[in-house]
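Try this one yourself first.
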């Protein structure tokens, strides 16, 4: 009798891979990463590890470090991307000698935010003020997810601006939150940028600064000038009498012009109809701006060249302290910032807004 031995050889156990994460959420145009690890207990390297994306899907592999052989205990990364939103999609990851692990990839648009309140003309920070400028930020209703960590991301032109963003840590679609802005430093109008850690856009806004009774229109190293609030503007003649006031012709120095004008009989003889005197009547620090100072006001506060100006509630024609001749003085027109010295003579009633330095 012959004895026989039958030996059956089973398939090799193969490499065992794990994947992290198994659910991937990413934004359109962005990259999501998945880490594949060949277990330390695998008997052999994992060969040709790759992702199998369903036909017709807009998801694609952006890059892979897996190569042809993944050593025992080693890891590699596959990155995914998509140009458009894609619903939950099952993607198989395996190698030629490994188990298969399925992951779910979902692609959505990033949330869109906007600055919704207050209107541009009211985006003013009061220096040393007790009440902050409350800037309302809204996550658009069509945004697919919450907007996260919204704050002022760029304030390079007003670095000492303080921002309380505690109410804007996570903002649901259609909801709004407030960024609270304060400052103990005066600045000319500055552009700020608002963004979130996951937002598709970063809206910008000009903000202005109210200081010592007026809007700041110039500032350098802590020194600057303000133009008085619109509630304090008045109408007046330049002077009621025609006079060649020597020394009142500076295009840049409203302080010097004002001092000369108020001491001239054309003004001192009829102070009720003297624009420069009306500024001095507020307090000695206030003066009638020279024409080029008015240009600086326009450039800072009405750079949009349209009504309403970005800030300041300006309207039409404003007297400067710069005399042109015996009969005429320079004035500036809003919203375009046009200089003129002939349309209105000195005894015309134009708007007066005073300035002061700090």
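Now uncover the answer:
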């Amino acid at each position: 009798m012959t004895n026989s031995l039958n030996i059956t050889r089973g398939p090799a156990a193969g490499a065992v891979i794990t994947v992290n994460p198994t659910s991937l959420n990413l934004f359109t145009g962005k990259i999501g990463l998945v880490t594949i690890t060949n277990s330390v207990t695998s008997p052999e390297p994992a060969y040709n590890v790759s992702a199998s994306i369903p036909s017709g899907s807009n998801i694609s592999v952006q890059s892979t470090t897996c190569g042809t052989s993944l050593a025992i205990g080693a890891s590699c990364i596959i990155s995914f991307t998509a140009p458009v939103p894609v619903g939950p999609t099952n993607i198989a990851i395996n190698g030629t000698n490994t188990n298969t692990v399925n992951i779910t990839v979902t692609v959505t648009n990033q949330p869109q935010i906007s600055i919704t309140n207050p209107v541009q003309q009211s985006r003013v920070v009061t220096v040393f003020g007790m009440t902050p400028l409350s800037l309302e930020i809204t996550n658009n209703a069509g945004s697919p997810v919450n907007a996260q960590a919204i704050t002022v991301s760029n304030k390079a032109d007003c670095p000492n601006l303080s921002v309380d963003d505690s109410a804007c840590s996570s903002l649901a679609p259609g909801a709004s939150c407030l960024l609270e802005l304060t400052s103990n430093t005066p600045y000319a109008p500055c552009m700020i940028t608002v963004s979130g850690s996951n937002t598709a856009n970063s809206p910008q806004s000009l903000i202005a600064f109210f200081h010592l009774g007026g809007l700041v229109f110039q500032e350098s190293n802590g020194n600057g000038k303000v133009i008085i609030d619109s509630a304090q503007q008045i109408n007046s003649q330049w002077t009621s009498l025609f006079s060649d006031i020597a020394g009142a012709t500076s295009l840049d120095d409203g302080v010097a012009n004002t001092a000369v004008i108020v001491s001239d009989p054309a003004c001192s003889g009829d102070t009720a109809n003297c624009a420069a005197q009306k500024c001095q009547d507020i307090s000695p620090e206030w003066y009638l701006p020279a024409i080029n100072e008015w240009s600086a006001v326009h450039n800072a506060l009405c750079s949009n060249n349209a009504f309403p100006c970005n800030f300041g509630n300006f309207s039409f024609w404003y007297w400067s302290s710069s005399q042109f001749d015996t009969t005429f003085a320079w004035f500036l027109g809003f919203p375009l910032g046009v200089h003129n010295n002939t349309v209105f003579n000195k005894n015309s009633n134009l708007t007066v807004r005073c300035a002061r330095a700090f």
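Discussion: The chain has a mean pLDDT of 96. The radius of gyration is 35 Å.
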